[in-house]
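User: I'm putting together a teaching handout on how multi-component assemblies are represented. Below are the sequence lines for each component of a complex, exactly as they appear in our records. Could you produce the 3D structure of the whole assembly as C-alpha cells, so the students can see both representations side by side? Please keep the chain order the same as the input.
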Amino acid sequence: MKIQMESGQNKRQIGRHVKLAGMGRALAGNVMNFDGGTRYRLRTGETLLDLAEEAAEKALAEAGMGMEDVDCIVCAMATPLQAIPCNAALVHERMAKGMHIPAMDINTTCTSFISALDVMSCMIEAGRYGTVLILSGDTASAALNPGQKESYELFSDGAAAGVLVKADPGEASGILYARQCTWSEGAHDTEIRGGGGLLHAFSLTEENRKDYYFDMKGIQILRLCARKLPGFVEDCLREAGVAREEIQAVVPHQASKALDVIMPRLGFKKGTYINRVSAYGNMVSASVPFALCEAIQEGKIRRGDLVLLMGTAAGLTVNFMLLRY
Amino acid sequence: MKIQMESGQNKRQIGRHVKLAGMGRALAGNVMNFDGGTRYRLRTGETLLDLAEEAAEKALAEAGMGMEDVDCIVCAMATPLQAIPCNAALVHERMAKGMHIPAMDINTTCTSFISALDVMSCMIEAGRYGTVLILSGDTASAALNPGQKESYELFSDGAAAGVLVKADPGEASGILYARQCTWSEGAHDTEIRGGGGLLHAFSLTEENRKDYYFDMKGIQILRLCARKLPGFVEDCLREAGVAREEIQAVVPHQASKALDVIMPRLGFKKGTYINRVSAYGNMVSASVPFALCEAIQEGKIRRGDLVLLMGTAAGLTVNFMLLRY
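Assistant: Of course. Below is the structure of the complete assembly, with chains in the same order as your input.
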C-alpha cells in the first residue's frame, strides 16, 4: 500500500472517452477434445497470422471501417511470431501493405489486450491517434509439453481483435478505471525459458528440451494469487468507487478451470462472470477479447453496460479495467 | 498522403509536458575490434539483464530516485529474453521483486525507445502514471551469422535506460511532436525468421539454421529508405512547424555506416547528427537512448535544447520525435 499511495499511479486518473467500435474473433481449424473440454489448434499450413487477419477483418467490418481508417496497428500478444520484426509489422504486411500505418507491439503476456486498451485510450485521449486496431492471439500449440498434461490439454490457438475509437461527446462509452500490478515473485511460475536471448534456439539440446516448452506451476500460481488478488480487487473497486453489483458483466482471463476457485474468493459468485474454459480453454492473450467479443455477439453485453475486464498473466501480472461498453 | 490527411493521427497532437529526469547506459564486457570499429559482446555468464539493470540504476541515480518512485517499468526492446513472460517482468524480478510496480513491453524493434517515449508520455499526460522507467537493449550477439560479414561485424550488446516524469509547470521540457510510419514492404528486409511462433525453436535443423540468424538485406533497405524517408522527414518538419536549423541535436538510430549516406539525403549534413557507429556499432533498441545519454553526459545536449530522435527499424518502421530536453 505504501508504494501505491506515494506514487502517481491512479491518483488522478481521468476517464477516457473511447469506444470499442467493433470486435472480431477466430479459432484455429483443428478441433480436439480432452476431458477438460474442446480445444482448437492450428492445422498444418495455418498460422496465427491467418487467425489474426480473420479476427481483425470482422472487427473492422463491425465498425464499418477499412484499414484506411486505422491510425495505428497494435499487436497485444504474449509471444513473438518471429524474433524480429515485431508482430504488428507482420500483421501490417498481411493487411496494410502499401500503407504507412504505424505498427507496434504491447505485451503484458495474457492480459496484453487489457494493457493495450489502457495504453491506447491514453494516446487517443492525448490526440495522438484517432482509431486503433488491436489484435491479440498466440500460437500456444507451438510450445506445449505433451508430458505436462495440465497445460497440454488446456490451451487453444485463437485470435481476437478490437477497433478502439474516440467516443462521441454524447456517448457514455469510456474507460472509467484501469490498474495493473506485477509481482515478479511469480516470474518463473508461468514461463517458456527458451527461445529468446537468454536461452537461444541454437542452445536447444535433447537434455534441455523441456526449457523450450510452456511450463506452468499451477499450485504456486494459485498460492500467489490467493495472497495478492483479494486485496488488489478490493483496492481497485474502492479507488474506482464502484460496487460489484453495479457491474453488468465480468470478463476474466480464461486461465484454467481454477477460475471457479479464484473468482468466488474475489467476491464474484459462480454465474456472475464469464467462464468459457471448457468451450475454448486458455487462449493466452486472446482469451479476454475473445470472451468479450462472444458476449457482445450473444447480447450478454450491451452498449452502456459497465464491464469489468480482469486477469492474471505470466509475470505475475494482474490487470483490472472498468469499461463502459 | 491521403491516409494521413483523412486519419486522426497527428492532426491535433498536443504537447506533452514530460521530462527525461535521468538516463544511464551500459556495455557488454567482451570488447572486439573489426575493420568497421569497436564492438561489445556479452561475456560468458553475462546477460542482457545485467546490462539493463546497470543502465537503469544509473538512470535512477541521476534522477535522484529509487525503484519505489517508479509507477511503471517498460522494456522497449526489439527481442524477447524468454518467450514468456515479457522482458519487463524479468527486469522487475531483478530490480523490483517484492514491489507491485506494473511491467510492460513496448516493441517497434530498433526504435522501441522512441515509441515508448511517445506512448508513455501520453499515459503521463492522461494522469495514468507519474514516473516511468524505460529500458532498452538486446542480445544482438545471440543471433549473428558469422557468414554474413556485413551484420556480423556491425552489432554490439548494450543497454540504456531513461526515467520519464511529468515536467513541472515552469519547465520547458516536453515532447513537441511524434510520428511513426510502418511500411511493411520492408518486413522481411531485416528479420530473424526463426525462434517465434511461425518457426519454433523445435523446428531448427542444420538445413534451416540460417533462418534463426539475423538477416539484413542492406541494399533493399537503403532503396526503401531512399524512396520513403525524404518525404516523411519533410512532412514531419512541416507538421511540427520546425526548421532543421532550430534543432540543437539530431540523434539517429545507429543503423550502420550508411548513416553518412542517408542523413545528408534527409537534409542533415555530416557533423550535424550524432554518429557513433564506429565506436559502438548498432545496438538495436539501445542505440538511440545510448547515444542520447552519452551526448547529455558529454554536454552536447543541455536542458532546454530541441532534440530530434529518429530512426529506422525492422518493419520497416520509422520514428521521428521532437523533444525539448
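A couple of points students might notice: The first strand of chain A starts at residue 18 and ends at 27. Residues 1-12 of chain A have pLDDT under 50 and may be disordered.
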